[in-house]
Design a protein that fits this description.
alpha/beta; 6 helices; globular
Length: 219
C-alpha cells in the first residue's frame, strides 16, 4: 500500500527545511505509513533578539525565518496572544498551499505545528466552505494549534468542521499553553486528542505511535 502523503506546515520563525529536521523522529516513527512533504511560508520574518513569539527554544536559530501571517500589520510580527482587527499575509500563504497542491499533490492530509496548525484549521475551514476548490485534504493533524485572536479570522470558526482531526499538545507548553489548544477543539466536529507531558514540539516517542497509527489507519 502506498504511504499517505501529508503536507507539513511549519511554525512561526521556522521554514520547511528546519521543520523537516525538527520532525526527524516523527518521520522515523511513521515512515511505513506516511510520506511527509514540507512547505515554507512565503513571508520572511525579521530576526528578533528574543524568541518569545517564536516556536520555542531554538526557533530563532534558523537563518531563513518565515511566517504564515502577521498579527501586527505595522511591525510585520506575530504573537499568538495578540488581539488584532486584521492580519497581513494570509492570502499569499493560501496561494503557496494552492501551488503546492497543484505542483506536488495530491495530498491525503495536512499537518501543522503552532502557527502552522492555526493556519491548517483555516485551510480546513475554507475547504469545507467550498472556497478553495483545489483543497481536498482528507484529514488534519494539528500540533500545538490555537484559534487566531484576529477579528478578521473569526469566520473560520463558525460551524464545527467535519474533517477528521488529531490535536496534539504538550501540557508543559509555554509558547502555546494547552488551554489555547483546547479552545480550538470545538471548531472540529469530532476531534481526537493526544496530549504529552512535554513542551512546544512535535512528540514522536514510541508511546505516541499507537495514537498516530490508529488515526492514520482510517485513511
Amino acid at each position: 500500500m502506498a504511504p499517505l502523503r501529508v503536507l507539513c506546515i511549519h511554525g512561526y520563525r521556522q521554514n520547511g527545511t528546519s521543520f523537516r529536521e525538527k520532525t526527524g523522529a516523527l518521520r522515523k516513527l511513521l515512515k511505513k505509513q506516511v510520506e511527509l512533504v514540507y512547505l515554507s511560508a512565503p513571508h520572511s520574518v525579521q530576526q528578533a533578539p528574543d524568541k518569545e513569539d517564536g516556536s520555542g527554544p531554538g526557533a530563532g536559530d534558523d537563518e531563513d525565518q518565515r511566517g504564515w501571517w502577521f498579527s501586527d500589520v505595522q511591525a510585520r510580527s506575530f504573537s499568538a496572544q495578540q488581539q488584532c482587527q486584521e492580519s497581513l499575509g494570509l492570502d499569499e500563504s493560501l496561494t503557496t498551499v494552492r501551488e503546492a497542491v497543484k505542483d506536488q499533490g495530491p495530498f491525503d492530509g495536512i499537518l501543522g505545528f503552532s502557527q502552522g496548525a492555526a493556519f491548517v484549521a483555516m485551510v480546513c475551514s475554507l475547504q469545507e466552505q467550498k472556497l478553495e476548490p483545489e483543497f481536498n485534504f482528507r484529514f488534519a493533524i494539528l500540533v500545538a494549534g490555537f484559534r487566531s485572536a484576529c477579528k478578521q479570522h473569526q469566520t473560520f470558526y463558525g460551524t464545527p468542521l467535519l474533517i477528521p482531526s488529531l490535536h496534539v499538545f504538550g501540557l508543559e507548553d509555554r509558547v502555546i499553553p494547552d488551554n489555547m489548544s483546547r479552545e480550538l477543539l470545538p471548531s472540529f466536529q469530532d476531534p481526537q486528542v493526544l496530549t504529552h507531558p512535554g513542551g512546544h514540539f512535535v512528540p514522536a516517542a514510541s508511546a505516541h505511535r499507537q495514537t498516530y497509527q490508529e488515526f492514520l489507519k482510517k485513511f
